[in-house]
Specification:
Largest sheet: none
Structural class: mainly alpha
CATH class: Mainly Alpha
Shape: rod-shaped
Helix content: over 70%
C-alpha cells in the first residue's frame, strides 16, 4: 500500500469515526432533551392538579360547616377528590422521569394532599399550608434536576 492509499484509508476511517461519534452524541442529546421535556410536562400537570385541589379545598373551607349551597360544597369536595386522583396519576409519571429526590418530594406532596382531603374542616388551613410547603419543596427539587436553579 502506497502513501496515497494509506492517506485515503485514514481519511475514510476518520470520517466514519466522526459520523459514529456525531450520531451517538446527537442521540444522547436528543434523549436528554426529550427526558427534560417529559419531566417538565409531567411537573406542570402535577402542579396544576395540586393547585386545583388546593383551591377547591380552600373554597370549601370558606363555605363553612353548614354551607348555604350544599350542591356547591359537593362540587368542591368532588374537585378536591378529582385533583387528588390526577395528582396520583401524574406522580406515577413523575417517578418514571425524575430523580429519587424529586420523586420523594412528589410523594410527600401526595401525602400532604391526602391529609388535606381527609382533614376536618377546622384543620384545613394548617393542611393547606403543609401542601403549599410540600409544593415548594417539589419545585425546588425539580429545578435542581432540570438545572434551572
Amino acid at each position: 500500500m502506497g502513501v496515497g492509499e494509506w492517506a485515503a484509508f485514514t481519511a475514510a476511517f476518520i470520517s466514519g469515526a466522526n459520523i459514529v461519534v456525531t450520531a451517538v452524541l446527537t442521540r444522547s442529546r436528543d434523549r436528554t432533551s426529550w427526558s427534560r421535556e417529559s419531566l417538565s410536562d409531567t411537573l406542570v400537570v402535577l402542579l396544576e392538579a395540586s393547585w386545583r385541589s388546593s383551591d377547591a379545598a380552600r373554597e370549601r373551607h370558606e363555605l363553612g360547616a353548614r354551607p348555604g349551597d350544599p350542591a356547591l360544597a359537593t362540587r368542591l369536595d368532588d374537585a378536591v377528590e378529582a385533583g387528588f386522583g390526577e395528582l396520583r396519576t401524574s406522580l406515577t409519571r413523575l417517578r418514571l422521569f425524575a430523580s429519587e429526590r424529586v420523586g420523594g418530594a412528589g410523594v410527600d406532596l401526595l401525602i400532604k394532599h391526602r391529609e388535606l382531603r381527609d382533614a376536618q374542616l377546622a384543620d384545613q388551613p394548617a393542611r393547606l399550608e403543609a401542601v403549599s410547603a410540600a409544593r415548594r419543596r417539589l419545585i425546588q427539587a425539580a429545578r435542581r434536576d432540570l438545572k434551572t436553579d
